[in-house]
Write a structure and sequence with these properties.
Strand order of the largest sheet of chain B: 1-2
Number of helices of chain B: 17
Largest interface: A-B, 129 and 133 residues
Radius of gyration of chain A: 30 Å
Largest sheet of chain B: 2 strands, antiparallel
CATH architecture of chain B: Up-down Bundle
CATH topology of one domain in chain A: Immunoglobulin-like
Helix content of chain A: 40-55%
Helix content of chain B: 55-70%
CATH class of chain B: Mainly Alpha
Strand content of chain B: under 5%
Distance between the termini of chain B: 46 Å
Number of strands of chain B: 4
Number of helices of chain A: 8
Order of helices and strands of chain B: EEHHHHHHHEEHHHHHHHHHH
Order of helices and strands of chain A: HHHHEEEEEEEEHEEHHH
Radius of gyration of chain B: 24 Å
Shape of chain B: globular
CATH topology of chain B: Cytochrome C Oxidase, Chain A
Number of strands of chain A: 10
Oligomer: heterodimer
CATH architecture of one domain in chain A: Sandwich
Number of domains of chain B: 1
Strand content of chain A: 15-25%
Chain lengths: 354, 604
């Protein structure tokens, strides 16, 4: 019933607008079309000017409302992301200036040079000097932006520092898995054909002994603050994307083609709670590449903690190999905290297929 | 009523009437079928493209309203949705899978069926023969086939909306493996095959059309119409057609390889896959290969959409400012530069795919280079307005709106084209705002400008002016209200293509804004229906056009009768003596192209 009423109101509204439009056409014929045209011209010229003024005011107001909700007031949570923020301000400065100048000229000229009986259009087909100016000036500004942009780009996408903490990230519909190299600092080899419910990432436990101390956790990634972190990124089924907006980082996870990304977290999660004034603050990993019906729910959490907390957490984890081959687990009862330990994440086998 | 058979230079027999006006009903050789259905008259084919495009635009627009309901009111249920969509909206709430199908089809429909076929198909067909002074296209028959391939493609795409597993739902970019594997998404079942086959037909249509446009422009110009006397519309259609002819075949190959991967067990794009716990045998393919093939078309496609809007806006701005377009040669050169660069920037869509950073660097440089010809065009448009004597017809308002939107959306391209910044902004709402403003809404504005401006030539009647003004003001205000705030969501890192943000601590603070955007988009959608109504109503009931040249324009289409028949000019095709932009020259308000150069005329 409500819907029916809504449709009725819309239709009525349409009819009213149409009647007005039709009537105005008859009036214009009666009044003389030339006269009406000139009247409309004045009205629209005025409206264009009003649009400019209200539009600029609206843009300011929009900024006032929403700037605080973007990530820029709190600054980048990674050292490398600061460069991206700087690049943003630089680009905003250049484009903002151009935006205001060109939009003001567009609407101001429209208003100023509206048709008048005593005005003659000025025949001005070209002017090489002017055109040369507005070819070279943009080119110079763009060169500056390209130079800065590429400098930062190569820095950010360059090799990770040697002392970086390495974490392997694997995406699948619709969750994230993380693997740490363990004490030997080497991630064990994988072969996707070995994937089973017990070995969801397809680690080659039989062929590669370095995998025996590797740690596998799901959903939440722990990393230390102040040290470079290198992520080695994989996907199992379709393309995903590791989106870390607070760190200003993003990299696709492509099946069959591992990618990498590195950054240095500046603040722990606890520090960010204070900094943002939000007691529920968490660093989130969003999947930023369309990956199927659960795309919007493919969420991961990053816990950034102090070096000591991180080491303690890592020490509390059991190697994945122990759950793959329970016989390998040393029998020392009561020492290991199992709360956050590697639950074999068999999500691969069950998710997605309702 | 006498009718003569006239041979054009290429041996095509064309029927033309020697009498002006109302000859349409009395034409000897035309039946309803040959006149309205399998017509070979470029003007009728243009109308077929336009009306088919409008139907698609309503469908595509409606889809966006449906998914905006989900985004704006994630907590609400709408029981009528279940009546409309059945099991896709159980309990009045969109199913996520169908939400993605709507997003995918909205993109596909608007990009290809509306802004490529509906825009370039309509106006290239309508204006090329009329403005270069030709009786019809180089091959009217291929031109007819071009429409009917488009129609076939439309039928296939439309039918995919009704299959049990739903239409394609992997985004309009259909990246494999998601689009290749039915187990990964139900939209990747039969719906995806239909999408690919439909697109293959579409590409055939685009190629037939494009080859025709190019050969007509190169070969069938009337006497005196040198390339440098062509109106900018024609230059724009020319480069558009070249872009299409060179890039669409690449998409076709990409689509066919994807069909192979889906149905014949090949592994062009597939490797190392475990889907739903099932280990797939495919090895050695590259998912990134598809992205290269796709964007090699995908990026030129952006300019295929945009260039016609630029060309038509240039023409309309100049005519209604009563001034020559400023810097004609610079305008042509910048179109040319854009067309070349359009082929050299595709990988800027792929900065975060793990692309070699060095390669990324080159693409940054080439991408930002496009800003130079774009800037030239904007400054030239502004200078065209300067010291003009401007008439604000609805077409002119839309052309001014086009420039405003092109500036706004073009500038945000400088953010995204710079790879370092793109890392943060890629696949966020910032991207949505950018491309909707610069190629979506701006091109729509070019298209509306074209429809309002050339409607009198199409139907011999005017559109209702008041409705036109209302349409313009609601649309431009609405477009900015919808897309401007989205930049802020993007700066907050809010990802695209999310069904619901409520479980995200980082993105859930924009609920009120999303609701506002959805509300405005419904209003803007309704305003477009007003335009559609105006369009169809005016075909039969609009004010009749009484003069052959209602806008005081210089180009050749205004030398034809009010209702030109097949063959366009009843007598000889006029000879051209000057460029298309002699407005306000030597104290004359305008000098049409077919007026010989006077002895005392000044030279510039």
């Amino acid at each position: 019933m409500k819907e029916f009423l809504m449709i009725l109101i819309v239709v009525m509204f349409f009819v009213v607008i149409f009647q007005i439009a039709k009537a105005s056409e008859y009036v214009s014929v009666l009044k003389g079309e030339e006269k009406t045209r000139k009247q409309n011209n004045k009205i629209n010229a005025f409206l264009l000017m009003a649009f400019l003024v209200l539009g600029l005011a609206g843009a300011w107001w929009c900024n006032h409302l929403f700037y605080g909700k973007t990530l820029f007031p709190q600054g980048s949570a990674s050292v490398e992301g600061e460069k991206i923020d700087l690049m943003l301000w630089l680009t905003l400065g250049v484009t903002g200036l151009v935006f205001i100048i060109t939009q003001v000229l567009l609407f101001y000229f429209s208003y100023k040079y509206q048709e008048k009986d005593n005005r003659k259009a000025y025949y001005f087909p070209h002017n090489n000097k002017l055109e040369l100016i507005w070819t070279t000036v943009p080119a110079i500004f763009l060169t500056v932006l390209v130079v800065f942009g590429l400098k930062f780009w190569f820095k950010i996408t360059g090799d990770a520092p040697k002392d970086a903490v390495v974490v392997e990230v694997t995406g699948h519909q619709f969750a994230w898995e993380f693997r740490y190299p363990g004490k030997d600092g080497v991630l064990g080899r994988k072969n996707y054909k070995l994937t089973t419910g017990k070995n969801p990432l397809g680690v080659d436990f039989e062929g590669d002994k370095t995998s025996h101390d590797d740690i596998h956790v799901g959903a939440t990634m722990h990393i230390p603050v102040g040290r470079p972190v290198k992520l080695v990124i994989n996907a199992q089924d379709v393309i995903h994307d590791v989106g870390l907006s607070h760190f200003r980082m993003k990299m696709d996870a492509v099946p069959g083609i591992p990618t990498t990304m590195w950054f240095t977290p500046k603040y722990t999660t606890e520090q960010m709670k204070v900094k943002t004034g939000n007691p529920n603050f968490v660093y989130e990993i969003s999947c930023d590449q369309m990956c199927g019906k659960g795309h919007f729910s493919m969420r991961g959490v990053v816990v950034v903690e102090t070096e000591a907390e991180y080491k303690a957490w890592l020490a509390g984890q059991k190697p994945e190999y122990w759950s793959y081959n329970p016989a390998a687990e040393p029998k020392t009862p009561g020492t290991v905290d199992t709360a956050g330990a590697a639950k074999p994440v068999v999500a691969v086998a069950v998710k997605g297929n309702k | 009523m006498s009718s003569v058979e006239n041979l054009t230079g290429h041996g095509t027999a064309v029927h033309i009437d020697t009498e002006h006006g109302h000859h349409e009903e009395h034409h000897h050789h035309e039946t309803f079928i040959t006149k309205y259905v399998f017509s070979q008259d470029h003007k009728m084919i243009a109308k077929q493209f336009l009306i088919t495009g409008m139907i698609w635009a309503i469908i595509g627009g409606l889809f966006s309203v449906l998914f905006r309901l989900q985004l704006g009111y994630p907590e609400e249920t709408f029981p009528w949705l279940e009546d409309l969509l059945g099991h896709w909206a159980k309990g009045g709430k969109l199913d996520p899978e169908f939400y993605y199908a709507l997003v995918t089809m909205h993109g596909t429909i608007l990009v290809f069926f509306v802004l490529t076929a509906g825009l370039s198909g309509t106006f290239s067909n309508f204006l090329i023969p009329l403005q270069v002074g030709a009786r019809d296209m180089a091959s009217p028959f291929l031109n007819m086939l071009s429409y009917w391939f488009f129609f076939l493609s439309s039928v296939i795409m439309f039918s995919s909306l009704f299959v049990q597993t739903g239409p394609a739902s992997g985004g309009w970019t259909i990246y494999p493996p998601l689009s290749a594997i039915g187990e990964a998404s139900s939209g990747s079942k039969i719906g995806m095959d239909l999408w690919l086959v439909s697109m293959a037909m579409f590409i055939v249509s685009a190629l037939l059309g494009g080859l025709n446009y190019i050969s007509t422009i190169l070969n069938l110009r009337t006497k005196g119409m040198s390339m440098t006397r062509l109106p900018l519309t024609i230059w724009a259609f020319f480069f558009t057609a070249v872009l299409g002819v060179l890039s669409f075949p690449v998409l076709l190959s990409g689509a066919i390889l994807l069909l192979f991967d889906r149905n014949l067990g090949t592994s062009f794009y597939l490797s190392d896959l475990v889907v739903n716990g099932k280990i797939l045998p495919n090895e050695g393919g590259s998912a990134i290969l598809f992205q290269h093939l796709f964007w090699f078309l995908g990026h030129p496609e952006v300019y295929i959409i945009l260039l016609p809007a630029m060309g038509m806006s240039s023409e309309i701005l100049s005519t209604n400012s009563r001034k020559p377009i400023f810097g004609y040669m610079a305008m042509v050169a910048s179109l040319f530069a854009i067309a070349i660069l359009a082929f050299l920037v595709w990988a800027h869509h792929m900065f975060v795919t793990g692309l070699n950073p060095m390669l990324g660097g080159f693409f940054v440089l080439l991408t930002l280079l496009i800003a130079v010809p774009s800037a030239i065009k904007v400054f030239n448009w502004l200078t065209t307005l300067w010291r003009g004597n401007i008439r604000f017809t609805p077409a002119m308002l839309f052309a001014i709106g086009f420039v405003s939107l092109f500036i706004s959306g073009g500038l945000t391209g400088i953010f995204l084209g710079n790879s370092a910044l793109d890392i943060h902004l890629h696949d966020t709402y910032f991207v949505i705002a950018h491309f909707h403003i610069v190629m979506g809404v701006a091109s729509f504005f070019g298209m509306f400008a074209g429809v309002y401006h050339w409607y009198p030539k199409m139907y011999g009647r005017y559109l209702n002016n008041t409705l036109g003004y209302i349409h313009f003001w609601i649309t431009i205000i609405g477009a900015y209200l919808i897309f401007w705030p989205m930049h802020y969501e993007g700066l907050a890192g809010m990802p695209r293509r999310y069904y619901d943000f409520s479980s995200w601590e980082s993105f859930k603070m924009f609920g009120g804004l999303n609701q506002f955007i959805s509300f405005v988009s419904i209003i803007v959608f309704l305003a477009q229906l007003l335009f559609v109504f105006n369009f169809f109503h005016s075909i039969w009931k609009g004010r009749k056009v009484t003069s052959t040249n209602p806008w005081g324009s210089n180009t050749l289409e205004w030398t034809t009768p009010v209702n030109p028949g097949h063959g366009n000019w009843p007598g000889e095709i006029p000879e051209v003596h000057r460029g298309a932009y002699d407005y306000g020259k030597d104290g004359k308000e305008f000098i049409p192209q077919d007026v010989p150069v006077g002895a005392d005329e000044s030279h510039h």
